Amino acid sequence: MLNQIKLWQAMIVGWVRDHKDETGASLVEYALLLALIAVVAIAALTALGGSVSHTLNNVAYNIANP
Predict the structure, then answer these.
(1) Phi, psi (rounded to 5 degrees) for 65
(2) Mean pLDDT comparison of 15-19, 24-28, 54-58, highest-scoring range
C-alpha cells in the first residue's frame, strides 16, 4: 500500500511539474470573456429585441414614405 501511495505521489508531482507552465491560461481567459460577452449580448437582444425591431421598422417606413 505504501508503494502505491508513493507511486501516486510521484505521478502527481510529475504532472504538476509538467503542467506548471501557464501560457495557455490567457487563451482560456479570453474564451471565457468571449463567452460572457456573447451571453450578455444574447440576453440584451432578447430583452430589447422587440423594441429595436419596432424602431428599425419605423425608420424603414419613414425612409420609404417621406
Answers:
(1) -125, 80
(2) 54-58
Q: Grid coordinates in use for 54?
A: 419596432
Distance CA 35, CA 41 (A): 10
Distance, CA of 18 to CA of 47 (rounded, Å) = 46
Question: In this predicted structure, what is the pLDDT of residue 25?
Answer: 64
- Total domains in the chain come to 1
6 located within any domain: no
> What is the rounded CA–CA span in Å between residue 22 and residue 19?
8
3-state secondary structure 34-56: HHHHHHHHHHHHHHHHHHHHHHH
Q: What's the average model confidence in pLDDT over 39-59?
A: 88
